[in-house]
Each structure stands twice: as C-alpha cells, then as structure tokens.
Amino acid sequence: MIRVQAEDFDIGAEVAALTAGRTDIGAVVTFSGLVRDASGNAPVTSMELEHYPGMTEKELARIETEAHERWPLQATLIVHRVGRLAPGDNIVLVVAASAHREAAFEAASFLMDYLKTRAPFWKREEGQGEARWVDARESDDQAATRWKR
Amino acid sequence: MIRVQAEDFDIGAEVAALTAGRTDIGAVVTFSGLVRDASGNAPVTSMELEHYPGMTEKELARIETEAHERWPLQATLIVHRVGRLAPGDNIVLVVAASAHREAAFEAASFLMDYLKTRAPFWKREEGQGEARWVDARESDDQAATRWKR
Amino acid sequence: MKLLYFAWVKQKAGTGEEEVSLPANIRDVNGLIAWLKTRGEGYEAAFADLGIIRCAVDQAHGDFDTSIAGATEVAFFPPVTGG
Amino acid sequence: MKLLYFAWVKQKAGTGEEEVSLPANIRDVNGLIAWLKTRGEGYEAAFADLGIIRCAVDQAHGDFDTSIAGATEVAFFPPVTGG
C-alpha cells in the first residue's frame, strides 16, 4: 500500500492494520524517517517537502511491486508526508511484513534505498533565515546499487 | 532500555516515547516478531515462553551495550514477552534510533540476531493436543556469525 | 505537450507547469532541452548544468535520449531527495 | 550452590531449581555434569546428549570447561529459542 499525505502517521496503528486478523506473519520491520534539527553544520528550523503528484504514486507502487518480486512478503506499506514539517516530525514510514525476519529486514531496507533514489520528492530546508534545496547524497546512490541485479 | 513482560506492547507508543522531545534522531527501525499459526507443517494453537529471570535482563543489557559500542545510536529498546501467547500475538520488539538509516537498520538486525542466539528464552508450541519445545535454528546461529569480529 | 518543473528547476525556469507546441523536429529529451534554452534566461539558467538535471517522460524516469514522440507530459527536476 | 534447569532440561531433571553441596573435587561444569548424572535417571536423561545442552555460570553464558569455583548459581538449558 502507498500513501502520500500531509498528515502525520502512527506506526503502531499502521502495523496493527497491516497484521490484523493474520496469523501467517512472523516478522514486521518498520523504518521511519524524521526531520533533524541540523543538516551537516547548518541548523534546520523547518522543512518543506515538494513532490510530483501522479508520478510519486506510480513510482512508489513500482518500488513496492519490485520488493514483492524479490522477497516473500505478506504485506508492505509506504507512507510519505508532503508539505511543511518541523524538526522531530515524521517524514516517511516503510513497513515490510514477512514470515521470516531476514526478508522483512532486507525488503524494508530495499524500499528505503529505492525510495531515496527514485521517488520524486524534494526537500527544502530553512534555517537562519535562508532556504536551501537539499542536495542528493552520493551515499544514497551507492546504497541503492547494492540491490542491482 | 530493556523490558521483559507478560503484557502486549504498542510499537507506536514505544517509538514515540523513545523519540519524544528529540530532534537529533533521523531514522528509527523497529522489528517486531509475532506468533505464527504454523511451525513447519505443524499447526500451532498456542505458545508458552519460558525465560531465566535475572540472566535474561543481564544478557539483553549486554546485547544492547554492544550495539551502542558498534553503531552511533541515539536510543535502543528491547521488549520481550513471556508466558502464554496465541497466533498473531506480539512476541518481541526491538527498536534502534540513529541520525542515519544505515546504523538504525544494522543495529536492529544485530540486536535481533544476538537476542535469538544469546537471550535465555525458550518457546514451547502447542498444537493438535501436543506440546513440543521449539528447536534452535541453525540459520539463527549463522545469521549471528555475520557480526563476529 | 505539458511540461512540468520541480524544486529549484521550477524556481529558475520561473514556472511550474506549461503547455507547449513543439517544433516537429524535436524527438527526444535532449532536443527538448535545447529548444527550451532558446526561450529565455530562466530556462538557460535552469538547464545550465545538465549533470544535476533529471527528467521523466509520462511520469516514468527517463534519460536525455528518451524519445518524447507521442508523450503527453515531460518533467524536469533535480536528483530526488525524499525519504 | 544453586542449580537451575530450564525448558526440557527441567522436565527431564524433574526439578527447576535446587540447592546442592558439591564434593570439593568438582571444579568446572564438566565435573558438575558428571556428578549430576550419578544422582538418578532424570539427570542421566537430561544430560544424555551434551551437544544440545548449554550452561550459564552466575547468569553468564559458559562452556563445559568454565570454572565453577566460587560460583553461586549454575544453570542448564537447551539452545535458546526466543525472539
């Protein structure tokens, strides 16, 4: 499942909804990303998340489909927030549920690596009166190449 | 933080408590393990979790300390349930919070691998009128050797 | 054809979305960028460093040599920074 | 010295916890196991296959050659299966 929304999410409620009534799930891994108060040495007082409506949903769905092709997963969820966020706020949630923990860990890590390098979101950080678009990190590209095949 | 308890846990509430008031955490990874309705081909209708009070807490604390020595972590949590559980019930929760996602993913995976092979818990499954102690999995031992150094 | 711009590409281009009628000889993203750069300083600034420009054709990631024949929507943006 | 048994080791030994006074010549876990096996069929069954027996001395994982000199608590159990 895929959701792009301005509202916050509750990890516990999302996991409960994903596992409700099921007894074939043995392992659930969640990743949540939060706004930090600093980017390198620059303080961050707020963040604006822009995205490409239409393509975002398509790209997240492609990433999710690929995870299901690679691992035996009972359920997955990607929730990404957009709009204005403050330090400490949630940005993104990824959940992977499987019978076994290896698949759940690997799939959650894969979902995040692909989301970071393929999903059309852009962050603009504000701090000390100025706004700057966040640069893509080369380490994210490198992390994503782990899954190349 | 370490807790051994009969009661269920709420992943969202645990993560919220761990990250409350903090703006230096960028990534939170949770693992939760659940009782499945089958073990291999044998149906499971309930499970009993026994542990070694005293040693359990010491061993979980050692595992947690080792994770903090290996990765830059802002916070960690291990909650393990004991007593009688049914299929679909939560068994264990591990949470790792860091500035960056790589450390959070690796630490959560490490905590689970070490917990699986070192924390003194024993599962007894019941199904079709008989109870059987769960055998340790060799794949768990192999997973733990990844972290040897 | 609908053109979309995001993040600082949008700021430099001076628009987030526009409808254009392309000359018939433009067949791929490269040709589209070359044509856009003739349309004003904003576009020239937006496409000054193609090493940090990414594109999507009909909402799927593309390269600069991706064909735009029959496409209804092309988007330009910096490398993504979500998650 | 306090001895503890868990899971099926407890079931086979027939007790989960006991206080024992050991002969002075018993210095390590190996010696303790050999002595326990002389105490009855239950212990003999519990310790029949040492490949699937683990031990802890004073609540820390030990080996069969771990010293028990000065120890107050030794535990025997199968390989752990938590998580």
Describe this structure in words.
The complex is a heterotetramer, with 2 copies of chain A (149 residues) and 2 copies of chain C (83 residues). Chain A has one domain: Aldehyde Oxidoreductase, domain 3. Chain A is of the alpha+beta class and 149 residues long. In chain A, 34% of the residues lie in helices and 36% in strands. Chain A is built from 4 helices and 10 strands, in the order βαββββαβββαββα. In chain A, the strands form 3 sheets. Chain A has a 4-stranded mixed β-sheet, with helices on both faces. Chain C is α+β, with helices and mostly antiparallel strands and 83 residues long. Chain C has one domain: Beta-grasp domain (Ubiquitin-like (UB roll)), CATH 3.10.20. Chain C is 27% helix and 23% strand. Chain C is built from 3 helices and 5 strands. A 5-stranded mixed β-sheet of chain C has the order 2-1-5-3-4. The longest helix of chain C has 9 residues. The radius of gyration of chain C is 12 Å and the shape is globular. β2 of chain A pairs antiparallel with β2 of chain B.
Note the main sheet of chain C.
5 strands, mixed
Structural class of chain A: alpha+beta
Major sheet description of chain A: 4 strands, mixed
CATH architecture of chain A: Alpha-Beta Complex
CATH superfamily descriptor of chain A:
Molybdopterin biosynthesis MoaE subunit
CA gyration radius of chain C, whole angstroms: 12 Å
Strand content of chain A: 35-45%
Written as H for each helix and E for each strand, in order along the chain, the element string of chain C is EHEHHEEE
Number of helices of chain A: 4
Uncertain spans of chain A: none
Oligomeric organization of the protein chains: heterotetramer
* Overall spatial form of chain C: globular
* Overall pLDDT of chain C: 97
For the record, the CATH class of chain C is Alpha Beta
Under the CATH scheme, which class of chain A? Alpha Beta
Radius of gyration of chain A: 16 Å
Strand content of chain C: 15-25%
Biggest interface found: A-B, 36 and 36 residues
